[in-house]
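Bumping with the actual sequence this time:
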Amino acid sequence: MVGVSLERVRTKPRGAGGRPTATERSKLRPPSAIANLGASSPDGAGSCRTTSRHPGSQALSHFAPSGLRGLLAVRTAIPNPLEGAATLVAALLALTLFVTLPNHANAADTQTPSAVVEALHETLTEAMKQAEALGYQGRFDLIEPAASKAIDQTFMAQKSIGRHWRKLSEEERMRWVASFSELTVANYAGRFKGYAGEHFTMEGERDAPHDTKLVKTILVLPNDDDVALNYRLHLTDDGWKIIDIYMNGTVSELSLRRSEYSSTVKRDGFETLIAAIEEKLADFEAGAVGDTGSPIASSTATTQ
């Protein structure tokens, strides 16, 4: 439509010197601009008329105090080549602040790695204290949401079967993550089934390789040797999440699972692994696995 209008203007007769006549120029002006030319200030204080050709200057003077209208009229009547660039920079800065400020707010709300571990410990302690009243299923239901929030189950499920993950279909991956997650919770619910004064202590937090954090804790067992439990966490879109647990400070749960699960898939196939997990879950539910204490079965030590 713009091209058509310009073409029509070019074909009309022009005044002296080939320039548009006054009548033609008035037709090129927007109707609102023609109506506003020569208009006085709405409050009647003084005559703030402007002949500025810059769109928007009249609107600015309409909302400005009467004492500023003359300044606006004079200022906007003289084109400023830097004004457009300055306006663009200001707009970009405003957009940047609008986009980045919410991210800073989210970062401020994110729990620290130590706080994530401590929240999980609080739930585990509560499960032990109410172990008999809750029973296995009650402990499972209590622990599951806390474990899901604190542990990156998808990451650990993927790493626990190594390169075999790439060979799984999308449906098989979903089945494996669900089975892995259920076994993680069952480990806690099946082993933390009594209370004799056990509690956790926080021993500090430090940086670890690959932008991860290591949170050191101790599980105090009144009738046995204390157990060092160190948690490794990485930062996700949902905050810090656990990706490995080290028993006695060195035994990696993820390494133990990878050694067992990968060899099972390689030797017997994916469905055999799923069947083995189902059997383990049934043992936990029947109370046939473990006593109180850590849900991690120690074997080969793996250094952090």
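The tokens above came from a reply further down the thread. The first strand starts at residue 199 and ends at 208.
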